[in-house]
Amino acid sequence: MNKPLQVTGIGHALVDIIAPCEEALLAEFALDKGTMRLTSPEEAATLYERMGPAVETSGGSAANTCAGIASLGGKAGFMGKVGHDQFARVFEHDLRSIGVVFADGEVKSETPTGRCLILVTPDGERTMNTNLGAAAEFGDSNLDRALIEQSQILYLEGYLFDPEEARAAFHTAADIARPAGTKVAFTLSDPFCVDRHRAAFRTFIRDRVDIVFANEREILSLYPGSSFEEACAAVRGECEIAAITRSEKGAVILHGGGSIAVPAVPIEKLVDATGAGDLYAAGFLSGLASGRDLETCGRLGALAASEVIIHVGPRPRRPLVEAARAHGLF
Predict the structure, then answer these.
(1) Which domains does the chain have, with CATH numbers?
(2) pLDDT for 115-150, tens place per residue?
(3) Torsion-angle region of residue 256: left (phi > 0), alpha (psi -120 to 50) or beta?
């Protein structure tokens, strides 16, 4: 079926505020390195005061993925909730300027646009502290049915599973997608997110999801007590395709009874892991929507991830289509 959009994502519409820090700052705020936690406006303000010079950019997991697809020359859409403030205007402009169709819902919120404070330690690991703001108010009224039906793939961000209204909207969106011939992809997002919603995640995946994205920690959280091999076998039985990333060890792609190991793309130095999983999904989904075989999809995902972790920030600095051509993938 020929559709105008390769992928439409639904997720948190956030502005990322990214700054380098030492390990001591994580200890001071009792932060678990490499994970995301939700913070109150007061906590966010306190932490912001302790951060050094920062880079501010539009972010949010699914939005980063959609930006990556656009960077690969694809056409993507995004749904997320913003406020009426300057951050909302920045977010909208950033997405639309790169060609992503941004559907901001029925009405904007009076709540401020969400933001994520990202601390990057010297080893390149990122620790995220998110005040969701308006992003957490996403619900059925913010769904754009036509955008879902016009997309080859609907991509859902696990982070947005926390609010009850957003969770219900995910179910509605998936139910719109299926009769329209739109595949449903779902990223687990974070091990703490999986811990909060393990049973609901598994039911949602089994009943409504075609493609699952997870990293090693997330998949082991989804199936606690399992070995990596056992967890892979379990998720294989609950969806059509699963792409499990393992940092420098590459990724494993599961499909039917088989698996494909795809190596990571070597880099000189890990600077900032922010957006690595988001851009992996961008490369993989771009390949899938273009009819590529799963190994090529995995290679595109690995390449896209490698392009974003060599600098600070969650989005690639050079067009990913150029990188793909240089590697013989386009």
Answers:
(1) 5-12+60-112+133-326 (3.40.1190.20)
(2) 899 999 999 888 999 899 999 999 999 999 999 999
(3) left
